[in-house]
Amino acid sequence: MLLRVFGMLAITSAVGLAAAPAAAEGKAKAAPADKAKAGAKKGEEPAPTGPAKMKGKLGLSPKGLAWNVTLEGLAKIYDKVFDEEFMPLYKKVQPGPAMESLDAEVADKKQLLRRNKILFGDLPTGVDYSALKGEYTYGNKESMTKLVLRTGVIRNFFFFDDKLWKVYDEHKLRKGGPYGENWEEASELLTKKFGATPFKVEADFAKGRSFNELQWTDGTTVIRAIDRGNVIALVYQDATVFFNLPKHRPNKPKNPHAIDKDVAAATAKPPPPEPKKPDPKDKPKPKGKK
């Protein structure tokens, strides 16, 4: 299958996808889990305090996909994937209307990533009402696009200043599926696959986390498994960005859904009237005095 999904790729001893860290940042900071392990007593395996160090390296696909690639660069990678995917169909079709229809279908697929681009600028977007809320911020040169793979997996790509830093795959859980029928099965399968007990992160709505998740890292990529009920999201992030995220999000814009202050003032309820002060003339006279 040409459109292989991230979570189904082999973990090997060789480097799969080499992240290209920015020169100013150098290598990604050591994962908190590594620091905790270094300070533990000999023979003990401490609970991770950050993404757990997995065994081996994670290989990502399709070929050419790498952190910091631009949206146009990403689209060209998938252009080649679609050409290869449709090649068997072209070999069977005859010149004429059928081939023209196939040409149109391929051309449409090649425009999906470009056409689905969403900018998180100053105006709110419909993504705010989806499960992806919390995966981006406004006013920090962030954007995203998406693609539905032939397997049915929904793949979301996130960018900082048009540089890829996160891939968010949505898999439906089902009996006999690659991740099992429920979250418990998926957690067990992933823990076995990555060879390490994951770092658990509880949902915290105040901090923008709507779901429980598990985290691992191979030093280059941080992997997050997110519990979304009948869907498991597998998120792959450039470790360099993940451990320096505040640096990439300096702006703390106001809530894009908040009511404009002038509108709020115009529609606000008027304050209740102050209680009327008694007139000194109406004060009752003390007894015995006229």
SSE inventory with pairings:
Blueprint: E1 11-12, H1 32-38, E2 52-53, E3 57-58, H2 71-92, H3 97-115, E4 118-120, E5 142-148, E6 154-160, E7 163-172, H4 183-194, E8 199-201, E9 213-217, E10 221-227, E11 231-238, H5 239-242, H6 245-248, H7 261-267
Parallel strand pairs: 2-9
Antiparallel strand pairs: 1-3, 4-5, 5-6, 6-7, 7-11, 8-9, 9-10, 10-11
Helix pairs in contact: 2-3
Describe the protein's architecture and organization.
The protein is α+β, with helices and mostly antiparallel strands and 290 residues long. The chain has a domain of 165 residues. 26% of the residues lie in helices and 19% in strands. It contains seven helices and eleven strands. Strands 2, 4, 5, 6, 7, 8, 9, 10 and 11 form a nine-stranded mixed β-sheet that branches. It has a two-stranded antiparallel sheet with strand order 1-3. Helix 2 packs antiparallel against helix 3. The longest helix has 22 residues. The termini are far apart.
Short description:
This protein has 290 residues and is α+β, with helices and mostly antiparallel strands.
What attributes characterize this protein structure?
290 residues; alpha+beta; 9-stranded mixed β-sheet; 7 helices; 11 strands; elongated
